[in-house]
Design a protein that fits this description.
The protein has about 220 residues and is mostly beta strands. It has one domain (about 10-190): Beta Barrel (FomD barrel-like fold), CATH 2.40.380.10. It is about 15% helix and about 35% strand. It contains three helices and twelve strands, in the order ββββαββββββββαα. The protein has helices at about 60-65, 145-150, 160-180, and strands at about 10-15, 20-30, 35-40, 45-50, 70-75, 80-85, 90-100, 105-110, 115-120, 120-125, 125-135, 140. Strands 1, 2, 3, 4, 5, 6, 7, 8, 9, 10, 11 and 12 form a twelve-stranded mixed beta sheet that branches. GO terms for molecular function: hydrolase activity.
Length: about 220
Amino acid sequence: MIYERGQTIVRRHLHPDGRVGSVLCGRVVSDDEHGLALWIETGSQTMRRLDSAGRPTRELSLLTSLRMTTMLSLGTWQPFRTLMLMPPGAAHSIWWGWRPDGGFEGWYVNLERPITRWAGGVDVHDQELDLLVYPDGRWSWKDEDAFAECTGDPAFWDEVEAAGVRVEGERLLALARAGAAPFDGRWVDFEPDPAWRPTPMPHWWDLPADATCWGPEYFQPGECA
């Protein structure tokens, strides 16, 4: 399945039990042999989980939040204008981020299982460990404690998969330290189509990925044109 430039799609992060953990939506920049590039403008709508008191669960460990009563709620994407690249079959995505003043903030490497495509977008199983790379060459790991906590839990991954996740992260770190693609300046000057406003959450955000009863017109609502 190939998406068209300017098409609205969702990127759903799924919990191990199959529930939707969070949803992002944006505009397709390109979809080719280099991967799927998605633009998420500041202010685009998101879906994130809250606890029963209405508090965001992002500050809790994933294992803790999975054992709580939570619900999805609309929010907005802040603070960075973001370009996400999901290379074909890759166990990662790379995010370019720009501050509101237009300055390039750096790269965010999200380690994840290869995406699954469906008519309305892509589904992702996050692997917790992330890598931050800054324009001046600095870098740091993110969420190492969460990655360690999930490793060995039957709902997540075993030590073998965890080792593979770390190897993938180290491989990308080596590319970043060498200034090699995709950390070689490509996309840093990217400007989206000026007509692309912040993206509203499309009505199909929670459609089952295996649904086959909807035609292409179902995924082209006027409010997202």
